[in-house]
Write a structure and sequence with these properties.
Two copies of one chain form a homodimer. Chain A is of the alpha/beta class. Chain A is built from 14 helices and 15 strands. Chain A folds into two domains: about 10-215 and about 375-385, Aldehyde Dehydrogenase, Chain A, domain 1 (3-Layer(aba) Sandwich), CATH 3.40.605.10; about 225-350, Aldehyde Dehydrogenase, Chain A, domain 2. Chain A is about 40% helix and about 20% strand. In chain A, the strands form four sheets. Chain A has a six-stranded parallel beta sheet with strand order 9-10-8-7-11-12, with helices on both faces. Chain A has a four-stranded parallel beta sheet with strand order 5-4-3-6, sandwiched between helices. In chain A, helix 2 runs antiparallel to helix 5 and helix 10 (about 235-245) runs parallel beside helix 11 (about 265-275). The radius of gyration of chain A is 23 Å and the shape is globular.
């Protein structure tokens, strides 16, 4: 079932989903959650096959791929958590009553077909399917060959849940194949309305470079913490450390620390604490341009807030940028003039995340300026439609 | 000045604009309006040159190109009308207070740099510059060679107004050159954050096919009027006529009339009235697929609402679709299941327009599913930024 049958009708499934009620979609999500619990043994057996084939991979990769009974239970729980979120579909977000007398509502509707391209993480198969279904979108899932057996069983379970709930199984269609197959998919704008990469930087760059379908992704995460002249020292230390050390390999981790030149003692203290936490410090142009995604950080002094803003707008990738300051005017200038999806005052860059924002689960994060900027959750998986009532009115 | 100087700093101008207040931008708009009035003779002289060179063109094209004292006054009035609109920039559109204690605001900010590509209509030069400036975006204007003299003077006036108001003249930069120059512009994603075509179908299709910059445009306008079994006859006649005849050459004009097979008398009456209004009627597959943009209309009977919806989703281009019915359930199904930027109940498709929607001036119209769907006004010229305050908070 996960290998697409003769010709899966993903567009037709999307149209059918768009006409469903939230209750119908929630019922399908509950069927899917139950299906995951019911077929736990099958899922674990398939995952064991994938695990054997991946025996030569790095431990981090094998860990991401591996399921155990607890992780399978978490997959089902994640589906139920998505079902419990409010659906944005059908929400009226603007009402207009122009003088002609027509009554206009701007209503959220599903995007249509979402292509999700990801690496060897079986949880993405389930999360992406659940988020797309909740928002009444059909999805095409293109996972990693490394997780092919696991994904096949998971997709079967999801599609069976859809069918049991009276919804079209093709609403979740998985595709396999190598780089050429992916290239063909993303070369055709008719494949999907949007493509969302979940995974490493190389995958994102490939899609941003080659896709003819609009891509929602974070194009890099060269994030900064700027410690202002008016920074509170303890806050500066805590935020710089958290932004770098708490999880250095992710895109909202900070890569550069900038400290106002009027606070040399604070620069010294933060550097000492970073080094004590195992962070290697670097300096200079090349370091400023590097996304380490590791326990490594560029450090520099700046003469002014202006220089900090200029530096960040020059080297940053528009992802997440923080200022530590007790000076409200400096904070206001920083948040206004730094050009990024998320700007922080006295908080860690690591907060950029749908879950941390209280948006519920996210399917990705975007530094695009169009459509969605920041975490991509259910709302960002919708578009809008103007619904106009006119009592027979015509244009003069 | 309109021919770009050595290297215009459009990005720098965009950053500077993003930090301006609405009052500063409104002051510049007023300077521009005054400048247009003050330089009316110069503008008319340049336009006369363009008019002479275009003497061999069709009357409709020469009319679009031509300015007279009244039309120049209207250009200035349009700039003041844009200044009077509320600026969406800085508006908080969502507030989130997750359990971690961080305070999140989602704020509207300018898109950045907008590339506007258009035909020989001098008013677009002024309208586009005004809308971009009001929304704190820099713009690159690429007009038609046919209006080059007029555009050069108008751009000079706009840039002088910006400079007098203390804003960077490069915020409005015009570029000239032929097809190759345009191809080079749109091949580079760094040129602008979005490209908006204003003008004919061929221009739109060119951009949608070749641009590496996201395009906001209406990809065709094959619009329908469906007269339901439960239609009021007079409303059906009025709406079908208005949708086809009021201005047949525009993308929200209807191209196909579908009438429920249970109302043969109404089909006959509407066809007679259309023919009396000079509309040539057509039938069959090929007619259904054609955008006439003329006094020509495809006509067909459908057996049911379902068949009407299916027909529209098959042949339509997702622009503007209307149902005429007194049956609320039929209207609800139509508005939910027809996939288009705007769906109408008992109103003409011709209403799809920023001005008619009460959004103020529009810079274009979009059938894209991402970012903006429908009229593109000031709000659609913004993106968002998350501004987060944390009192020293870090991620657990």
């Amino acid at each position: 079932m996960s290998v697409a049958p003769a010709k899966p009708d993903v567009r037709g499934a999307a149209r059918r989903l768009a006409a469903t009620s939230e209750a119908e979609r929630d019922a399908a999500l509950e069927r899917i959650a139950c299906g995951i619990e019911l077929h736990a043994d099958e899922i674990l057996a398939a995952n064991a096959l994938d695990g054997e084939a991946a025996a030569g991979e790095r431990p981090a990769i094998r860990d991401r791929l591996a399921l155990d009974p607890g992780r399978v239970a978490a997959l089902a729980a994640a589906v139920r958590a998505v079902a419990a979120l409010p659906s944005p579909v059908g929400e009226t977000i603007r009402e207009l009553r122009p003088p002609s007398g027509i009554r206009i509502r701007k209503v959220r509707v599903p995007l249509g077909v979402v292509l999700v391209v990801y690496e060897a993480r079986p949880n993405v198969t389930v999360d992406a399917a659940a988020l797309c279904l909740k928002s009444a979108n059909a999805c095409i899932l293109r996972g990693s060959r490394m997780a092919a057996n696991t994904n096949r069983v998971l997709t079967d379970v999801v599609r069976a849940g859809l069918a049991e709930a009276g919804l079209p199984a093709d609403a979740v269609t998985s595709v396999e194949g190598g780089h050429d197959a992916l290239a063909a998919l993303i070369a055709d704008p008719a494949t999907a309305d949007v493509v969302i990469p979940r995974g490493g930087e190389e995958l994102k760059k490939l899609l941003l470079r080659e896709s003819r379908i609009p891509v929602l992704a974070a194009a890099g995460g060269n994030c900064h913490v700027y410690v202002d002249a008016a920074a509170d020292a303890d806050r500066a230390v805590a935020i710089a450390l958290n932004a770098k050390v708490q999880r250095p390999g992710v895109c909202n981790a900070a890569e550069t620390l900038l400290v106002h030149a009027g606070r040399p003692e604070l620069l010294e203290r933060i550097c000492a604490e970073l080094e004590a936490a195992g962070v290697e410090l670097a300096e200079g142009e090349e370091a400023f341009a590097t996304e380490f995604l590791d326990l490594k950080m560029a450090v520099g002094a700046v003469a002014s807030l202006d220089e900090a803003i200029e530096h960040i707008n020059r080297y940053g990738t528009g992802h997440s940028e923080a200022i530590v300051t007790e000076d409200e005017a400096a904070a206001a200038r920083f948040t206004s003039e730094v050009d990024a999806a998320a700007v922080y005052v006295n908080a860690s860059t690591r907060f950029t995340d749908g879950g941390e924002y209280g948006m519920g689960a996210e399917i990705g994060n975007s530094t695009s300026r169009l459509h969605a900027r920041g975490p991509v959750g259910l709302e960002e998986l919708t578009t809008t439609k103007y619904v106009v009532h006119g009592d027979g009115r015509v244009r003069a």
